[in-house]
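Protein modeling request. Please complete all fields; requests missing the sequence field cannot be processed.
Requester role: graduate student
Desired output: 3D structure, token encoding
Chains: 1
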Amino acid sequence: MQTFPITTAGGTLIRAFELEHAYITIHDIATVLTSTEGVSHVRRRRRARDIRLEFSYHDRPFVVWEPHGDIGRFWIGPENADGFGDEVMTLKTRFDAFRPRLPRLLYGHLMTSWIFTHPFKKRHSRRARLLARIE
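Delivered output (135 residues):
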């Protein structure tokens, strides 16, 4: 699975990483986390709108966060700013090795494909050009 690293300002350390949620569900994320050595206390947060899962990794609090406004990705990283580095890289490697089940893979390809998304973008740009000509 493709992951998207979020690095520090210098670009040397991975602070967190993101996953496209078209290819993975919260249940799959929880399954990968529980099978990872050093992860404990994986629990779903139903009351919080943006934070979907909480877990401990080597006794440090981490979260799975879906930013408000739904950018299409889950953010996985430490709850506070002091817990990044090799630990986040280990988690990222686990998710790099994850392969979604076939129905989810097909759904992800459909939702992120150029053929599916391009006509909507193209129509929007035509509408913008027409409105610009009228004004």
